[in-house]
Specification:
Strand content: over 45%
Structural class: alpha+beta
Largest sheet: 6 strands, mixed
Oligomer: single chain
Shape: globular
Distance between the termini: 20 Å
Strand order of the largest sheet: 2-1-6-5-4-3
Mean pLDDT: 93
Length: 108
């Protein structure tokens, strides 16, 4: 099933598939990412977060639903890989600022 994502979110998932090192470029300078009980603030911290996750696990994320409200865009994605509990459906809650992501929270 293919979903249509807002451009900054589509860029995030595209970078997560092919160029994980460039994923931080999808975010504002002071963006915040919350994942696995940790908070990562700023592009450099986001770059380190994604680099650590990418060396720890091999995975594929396939978005299958998107819901938008006035503040957030929530994408549910099937994540399959070599991590405990795979596969899992994760909810990605995005707040956009212009053509960048200002906030991302990932929960199961």
């Amino acid at each position: 099933m293919s979903v249509t994502l807002p451009q900054p979110i589509a860029a995030y998932f595209a970078a997560d598939r092919t160029e994980r090192a460039s994923i931080a470029d999808c975010f504002t300078e002071g963006a915040v990412v919350k994942d696995e009980g940790k908070t990562h603030t700023g592009r450099e911290a986001i770059r380190r977060w994604k680099a650590e996750a990418s060396t720890k696990y091999t995975y594929v994320s396939e978005p299958f639903t998107v819901v938008e409200d006035t503040e957030r865009t929530i994408v549910t994605s099937r994540v399959t890989g070599n991590f405990p509990g795979s596969p899992v459906d994760l909810r990605y809650s995005f707040i956009l600022e212009g053509d960048k992501i200002a906030h991302l929270e990932i929960v199961a």
